[in-house]
Design goal:
This protein is 42% helix and 24% strand. The protein contains 24 helices and 29 strands. Strands 16, 17, 18, 19, 20, 21 and 22 form a seven-stranded mixed sheet that branches. The chain has a five-stranded antiparallel sheet with strand order 2-1-5-4-3, sandwiched between helices. The longest helix has 47 residues, at 424-470. 26% of the residues are buried.
Length: 815
């Protein structure tokens, strides 16, 4: 029979039996018999196997999360339209990244702001009218109005709203917003174009006439009236054949039909019949025209050969081509026949160097087939949108261009008219944006996994500490337990790195001088990098202050120094430099994530191996490493990236293979003075107590572990799974409750609200919050609120007991 798999509950039973046997021993930890020791070793081995099974389950869960994220995470944030959720007052509760990008603000800057802040004042009545209609009729609303970006630039928006209810039955408004500025502009341009064409046709010197597919005349201009002698009411609605003498009518209509169906305008000489029965030979030009009401035909009849206006138009067109800021060219049989100055500037070649040469020679070899195929599709009308590809200019530099082609005629032969724009800078900004979004998505995943793992680690630490206290110091199982704790410590370090990368750590920012931070760590850095690397510090004497977490700054410096050390395996020179800098508008324009202003820059430079472009593109990704297997986790630089971002800064890296690397960290400069620091002496304290402690934690295993530990230290312990159960316990408990240890994020009621409720029942109760989240009731944007006692998951039992004693004895100094 197949052996049943060992489950967590099985393991818990074995652990309880082992603990019972241990407790049956003397109170002085008598040495167990060999048989008992062997049984305990076996059960601990099962425990270790179970831990490995849990770790494997976590890895599988992480892989599934990554797969799910890759499939679904971008759907909401990168939708082509903006999504907003508003409450009844118009406050923005939720927004996707498209909304933030459209309005030119960070997503966090949108939340809890009135949507009317982004609506042009004159159009707000439109919004209020439709909002009232939505809430009164519960029917969807569709309307257009003008909105305004953070920089003050207005744009036209198409808005669709529907009503919804939140979990408290409060009325919500779900809105989608599309930027229709271009469409509105196109509509206005179309209207102006139609007006212009109407005026052009009506007032043109050349006679013009328009008819429909059934050959009925729909309009003609004044010049046609003057030519033929007919009045408007005598011609409109009649057949086109009335204009031709009967003897040549069939031939004339045949010529018009043949030339009108072509792709180009063609001229034919035909006689027309005037109102006075005379005939005139005219040069008849016609072509198909597509209108909203179907296909119509238009003809232009030229009486004379005066080409003065045509010459002027040609000259104006030549000026336009020569002054155009884009590249324009004409090619025939795959060779350049004409290029404008804009094309010369974009490619670096002169017209003499290009004319008569293969037009594909500028295209990067790997893209020539794609460009050739796209060109054929575009000339056939099968492709309308411009396409992008790289070219190599005369200086050998690769530039990205966007090209569009159309068929034309040049010197009496078919040709291709093309234009392209240099989009290299745009492409670079687009790549930066995509990389930033990828890092954000990976960060969300990493933060979620790390938070869930923290709860499991807290349980492992709790029971490991309990076992450690139960074992004799010479017990052979003690060294196995020590390895479990050591592995858990490493897992804790990894989760903290993941939280740092995902910007989920809790901050305690201070006004700092980076020079003081570097000088304070100089000796430690020297020991870290070894004697074969020389360390130099170039510090700005009048360095500005920054508002940052000192622990984060130390982590940033340490990780960058370790990275530099690994890049110099044979030794070298490491330079740490600080300087005040101003990032101007031009710098920020090339880096969309940067806000112009005054910064303090920390540069860490090594003269080591350097990195290629491919490595630089992934340098801050978590778990990406160039080190050999087993020599690194790939979290060092991703931790630096997350910590710099969380402290409001930016990081840039510059490197070339064989020429070393420089990391530049920019932290916003502040005007406050750095406060004087007084040394705090640690206080000796006994962790034991006799007070009554209420533990509120929704994770059963973690709650049980904490309660067991508190009882060992002498406390009377009450336990609750959630806020409602805790309030009921407090109301029924006959004596005082001295201390509340509560998780912050729980179902039904969060820890902050629970503490407020219990304070009214037990005014002297002291509170310690615990959590693995950074955005909750006691933390805002990763920064802990003032006068709050808090312990971060996962934690060791001794740290928890130390924290509790400090709070109970009203020693407000934090451990």
């Amino acid at each position: 029979m197949k052996k049943k798999d060992t489950t967590v509950s099985d393991f818990e039973g074995m652990r309880l039996r082992a603990e019972g046997r241990l407790k049956s021993r003397t109170a002085y930890f008598a040495e167990p018999s060999p048989e008992e020791a062997q049984a305990l070793i076996h059960e601990l081995q099962v425990h270790q196997i179970e831990l490995e099974m849990q770790n494997e389950h976590l890895r599988q869960t992480q892989a599934e999360l990554e797969a799910a994220l890759a499939k679904y995470s971008d759907f909401y944030d990168f939708a082509p339209v903006a999504y907003l959720t508003l409450d009844e007052r118009g406050l923005i509760l939720e927004a996707n990244l498209t909304a933030a990008t459209m309005l030119g603000v960070e997503r966090s800057g949108l939340l809890q702001r009135l949507v009317t802040n982004y609506i042009v004042r004159e159009d707000r009545t439109i919004y209020f009218r439709h909002r009232q209609g939505l809430f009164e009729t519960q029917g969807p609303q569709h309307y257009e109005l003008r909105m305004v970006r953070k920089n003050g630039a207005p744009f036209w928006a198409q808005i669709a709203t529907v009503g919804a209810l939140d979990s408290n039955k409060a009325q919500l408004c779900k809105a989608t917003i599309s930027d229709i500025t271009e469409r509105r502009q196109n509509e206005e341009n179309l209207r102006q174009t139609r007006d212009y064409l109407d005026k052009l046709i009506s007032h043109a010197n050349a006679p013009m006439i328009v008819w429909d597919p059934e050959s009925k005349i729909t309009r003609f201009n004044r010049a046609f009236e003057n030519l033929t002698g007919y009045a408007t009411q005598e011609v409109i609605g009649r057949k086109l054949e009335m204009l031709f003498p009967e003897a040549s009518r069939k031939e004339s209509l045949s010529k018009i039909a043949r030339t009108s169906g072509g792709e180009y305008w063609e001229s034919v000489e035909i006689p027309i019949l005037l109102k006075d029965s005379n005939t005139r030979i005219v040069l008849w030009n016609s072509a198909n025209m597509h209108a909203e009401d179907g296909t119509t035909l238009v003809a232009t009849i030229a009486q004379g050969q005066d080409i003065t206006e045509r010459k002027r138009a040609e000259e104006a067109f030549q000026v336009l081509v020569n002054k155009a800021p884009m590249g324009i060219f004409i090619e025939q049989d795959g060779k350049f026949q004409l290029v404008n100055p804009g094309f010369e500037i974009a490619t670096g070649y002169t017209a003499q160097e290009l004319l008569g040469h293969d037009s594909l020679k500028l295209v990067s070899p790997d893209y020539r087939k794609m460009v050739r195929e796209n060109a054929l599709h575009m000339l056939k009308g099968e492709l309308d949108l411009p396409y992008e590809f790289p070219i190599t200019n005369k200086s050998g530099e690769t530039r990205w261009v966007m090209e569009k082609l159309t068929a034309t005629e040049y010197q009496g032969k078919r040709a291709t008219l093309g234009y392209f724009l240099d989009v290299t800078e745009h492409k670079s900004l687009e790549d930066q944006f995509l990389q930033a979004q990828k890092m954000e998505a990976v960060g969300r995943l990493a933060g979620g996994v790390a938070h869930d793992f923290n709860n499991l680690l807290s349980v492992i630490f709790g029971y490991s500490d309990l076992m450690n206290q139960a074992l004799h110091q010479h017990d052979p199982l003690a060294r196995y337990l020590a390895e479990i704790i050591k592995a858990s410590d490493r897992a804790t370090a990894l989760t903290r790195q993941l939280l740092a990368f995902s910007r989920k750590t809790i901050m305690a920012p201070q006004i700092l001088n980076l020079n003081d931070q570097l000088v304070g760590t100089e000796k430690m850095l020297a020991r870290l990098i070894g004697a074969d690397i020389e360390i130099r510090m170039i510090l700005e004497p009048a360095l500005g202050a920054v508002h940052a977490d000192p622990g984060h700054v130390e982590q940033i410096v340490m990780n960058l120094v370790v990275n530099a050390r690994d890049a110099m395996p044979k030794g070298g020179e490491l330079t740490l430099e600080t300087v005040n800098v101003y990032l101007d508008e031009d710098y920020a324009r090339k880096r969309t994530y940067v806000t112009p202003g005054h910064y303090v820059m920390l540069a860490v430079t090594d003269n080591g191996q350097g990195m290629d472009a491919a490595t630089l593109g992934r340098i801050f990704e978590p778990f990406f490493t160039t080190k050999d297997l087993g020599r690194g986790t790939g979290l060092g630089l991703s931790t630096v990236y997350g910590l710099v971002k969380q402290n409001g800064g930016y990081i840039e890296v510059y490197s070339e293979v064989g020429h070393g690397t420089t990391f530049k960290v920019y932290l916003p400069q502040v005007q406050e003075a750095v406060p004087a620091v007084s040394e705090a002496k640690p206080l000796a304290i006994d962790f034991h107590g006799s007070e009554t402690i209420l533990v509120v934690e929704d994770e059963d295993m973690l709650r049980e572990s904490i309660c067991r530990s508190l009882k060992i230290y002498g406390y009377t312990v009450l336990a609750a799974r959630h806020g409602g159960e805790a309030v009921l316990l407090c109301e029924r408990h006959p004596g005082p409750i001295h201390f509340l240890l509560t998780d912050v994020v729980m179902p039904q009621m969060n820890g902050r609200d629970l503490a407020d409720r219990l304070t009214s029942l037990q005014p002297d109760i002291k509170v310690l919050y615990m959590s693995g989240y950074t955005e909750n009731a006691i933390v805002r944007h990763g920064v802990l609120e003032a006068n709050i006692f808090f312990i971060q998951k996962p934690f060791r039992t001794n740290k928890l007991m130390e924290k509790i004693r400090y709070i109970l004895t009203e020693r407000l100094r934090q451990p």
